[in-house]
# Entry
Amino acid sequence: MYRGGKIMRVKAVAAIVAGGMALAIAGCGSNEPQPSPGDVAQPSPEAPPGITLSDARIQLPVVSGRPGAAYFTVSQANGAPHTVTGVAVEMAARAEMHQTSGGSMAPLGKVGIGAGKTVKFEPGGYHVMLFDLDPKLRFSKDVALTVTFEGGGKAVARAPVTTMAGQMEMAH
Ligand SMILES: [Cu+2]
# Structure
């Protein structure tokens, strides 16, 4: 009996240690090295020539379970015009481009960026709605935002996660 009890206790301790390790591993995410501020707005090597992605940010829904939103600025400084065909955000299962106009909004399949032009995705205009958010997004400092262009080029930026309230897209 005594020996059995001891084994039980050893097993219990092992379970607690294993649980602690799992917590420690889960906690590592926030300690990952963050990109330096200089890296934030840089296009990835595969971005189309002349494309700059900047001011990316994620807005969490005020009420969890609602869609979030993503905003960014994309510029075509020189060269040929490009077309944005999609946006993906880490920890959001689905991202849709929308345009707000006249108090309602409609999904967009493509957004053209003319040569030398800048297009802002911002509250009340073009924006990205984020659906089926990973609950861990709320605890993330920033996530990767990837913009895909016609022809397959991609630009990636780190997007800080914000909880700022009171945006028009919250009405979804
Ligand atoms: Cu929308």
Observations:
- The two ends are 63 Å apart (CA to CA).
- The CA atoms of residues 16 and 54 lie 45 Å apart.
- The first helix runs from residue 2 to 27.
